[in-house]
Write a structure and sequence with these properties.
single chain; 341 residues; alpha+beta; 5-stranded antiparallel β-sheet; two-stranded antiparallel ribbon; 39% helix; 15% strand
Length: 341
């Protein structure tokens, strides 16, 4: 698959003339090539015209520069840029098949990435945004539609939770889409690519991916408890070693935040276009390795377990009831895949 490589005169003057360019598979929002320079293989990425293209390009460049502080690296080296054409030239990474317990290395690398920034970096990237009051309305509406009575006090629990997430402590460098496929398992360790959604916030918002089922990802996996525990322990230990502090915030709150967001049931192109939770009672849809209902049932089960004995008791009861109602209505729903695809 060949096409013109967007490698202008300034890049050629800085890096040399590219050779043997070959188009690679990529998301609809970008074009990606592998090419050869005198120093070896590189990746050339161009963000194509579309909604928020300039913002996504700026986020990726800023995040890669911030991540470059980390040694050993957790992101590819940014070799050159062409802002006019929204082009990045990146170190080429050799991806290897992940190990069975890949998520432990992933979690450690994620913690090191998160630890790259501090309060001094405020303004370098947008602040992470959590669920809204509209998300609460949608979630409670789903409960009523599937015949579940919302316990008294749940609305207050959710209002308080949304407010807590808005003020969650932390200035971590968040990847924005730390999915299987955006983690490259190399000989020198895990490195992350595709920082178009990078932000600053609390790292638990992305550690929550492990429990809640990789909510922004086509490749969703339900982790076995021993591996999940090992990965979360590795994350916290790595953060402690990198920062000298304990992880701040509440992992349960972070997981509930993903449960509330209906946009975390669809791929990026469809986010912000509809109330996706409201569609669940009438139809299911496949995205990647699981359907929307499969994803939601997993998240509901996770939250019902995590909130047991917490200040979100009413929400836990509601999550369990919605999950049971869904399994009764659609008894053929399968659990999420246990293996990474």
């Amino acid at each position: 698959m060949w096409s013109r490589l967007p490698f202008g005169e300034e890049l050629r003057a800085e890096l040399g003339a590219p050779r043997r360019s070959r188009r690679l598979a990529s998301s609809p929002r970008s074009r990606v090539w592998r090419a050869e320079l005198s120093g070896g293989p590189v990746v050339v990425k161009q963000l194509i015209d579309g909604p928020e293209a300039a913002e996504r390009y700026a986020r990726e460049v800023a995040a890669l520069k911030l991540a470059s502080r980390i040694d050993p690296p957790v992101a590819p080296t940014l070799l050159g840029t062409d802002p006019g054409e929204r082009v990045l030239v990146l170190e080429h990474l050799d991806h290897q098949r992940p190990r069975e317990d890949w998520v432990v290395d992933y979690a450690s690398a994620l913690a090191r990435l998160h630890a790259a920034t501090s309060a001094d970096d405020a303004g370098m990237l947008p602040v992470w945004s959590g669920p809204s009051q509209d998300d609460i309305d949608s979630f409670l509406g789903l409960a009523r539609t599937v015949g579940v009575v919302v316990p008294s006090g749940v609305r207050t629990e959710l209002d308080d939770l949304v407010n807590r997430l808005l003020s969650a402590p932390g200035h971590a460098l968040l990847h924005g889409d730390p999915c299987p496929g955006n983690d490259m398992h190399t000989r020198s360790g895990v490195r992350f690519i595709d920082f178009e959604q990078a932000a600053l916030g609390n790292g638990l918002m992305e550690l929550a991916y492990l429990r809640i089922g990789f909510p922004t990802c086509w490749c969703v996996t339900a982790l076995a408890q021993p591996v999940l525990h090992a990965a979360e322990t590795a994350y916290r230990a790595t953060w402690r070693n990198a920062t000298g502090t304990e992880v701040q915030g509440d992992l349960t709150d972070a997981c509930v935040g993903w449960l509330l967001r209906g946009d975390a049931l669809v791929q990026r192109a469809h986010r912000g276009t509809a109330d996706h939770l409201a569609k669940i009672p009438n139809r299911d849809w496949k995205w990647g390795t699981a359907t929307a209902r499969q994803r939601l049932v997993h998240r509901l089960g996770t939250i019902s377990q995590m909130t047991d004995g917490s200040g979100l008791k009413g929400l836990g009861q509601l999550a369990a009831a919605i999950r049971q109602s869904m399994l009764t209505r659609w008894p053929t729903l399968q659990p999420l895949p246990l293996q990474r695809r």
